[in-house]
Amino acid sequence: MKLHHFAASIIASLAMAGACAQTQGVAKDSITLGSIQDLSGPLAGFGKQARLGMMLRVDEANEQGGVNGRKLDLKVEDSGYDPKRAVLAAQKLVNQDKIFIMIGHIGTAQNLAAMPVQFSKNVINFLPLTGAREMYEPWHRLKYSSFVPYYDQIRLAVPRLIKEKNARKICTIYQDDEFGLEVMRGGEAALKAMGLEFTEKTTYKRGATDFSSQVAKMKSAGCDLVILGT
């Protein structure tokens, strides 16, 4: 099943079930959707495209009559890839715009910050744009994740890369937040299973654009494979 068909099916089934209980964001003729994107920060190139893709899909669905006769109304807020702003954006979408579902929220730390706001009002977190394990662990009835976790991506890929590249000094540069830690921990798990450890580790702050010191540190350590949590 294609992603947009899957999304429409999930929304339709949840809308039908929720309509009877007068669920927030589900009206007789509309379903209000929400999304939080980075439209002005370090991932704006990604966030703007995600927003445009959602708008195209919503327009397409509405031109075809919506979902069970209900037109989709998409509300998008900008977090600037900042967890604090994500909380404010979630509060607006959940409490003022009265969204039924949060779709494609970008960022690990941002989702973790916003989910308590959503869950307090039974607002679903649907297909967030992050592969962190926290998007489905611990289990919660309002969590719908879609990506293979960063942790498993790295844990399974690193041993193969080490073998193929005959790498001996494995290093990592990772973002100093929940996203980067997931990538780093996946690398640690892979190396531990092989009886190895990172030769060098270094971090950078969310939104940084100058990585000269981190790269210099990798070069000084003689790294021949660098895992990037970026």
Can you give a write-up of this model?
The model has no long low-confidence stretch (mean pLDDT 92). By secondary structure, the chain is α/β, with parallel strands linked by helices. Strand 3, helix 4 and strand 4 form a beta-alpha-beta unit. The strands form 2 sheets. A 5-stranded parallel sheet has the order 2-1-3-4-5, with helices on both faces. It is 46% helix and 17% strand. It folds into 2 domains: 142 residues, Response regulator (Rossmann fold); 80 residues, Response regulator (Rossmann fold, 3-Layer(aba) Sandwich), CATH 3.40.50.2300.
Main sheet attributes: strand count, strand direction, barrel closure: 5 strands, parallel
Mean pLDDT: 92
pLDDT < 50 runs, ≥5 residues: none
CATH H-level superfamily title of the largest domain: Response regulator
Number of domains: 2
Determine and state the CATH class of the largest domain: Alpha Beta
Our count of helices gives: 7
CATH topology of the largest domain: Rossmann fold
N- to C-terminal separation? 30 Å
Write down how many β-strands occur, each being a DSSP E stretch of 2 or more residues.
8
Note the run of SSEs as H and E: HEHEHEHEEHEHEHE
Reading side by side through the largest sheet, how are the strands ordered?
2-1-3-4-5
* Known CATH architecture of the largest domain: 3-Layer(aba) Sandwich
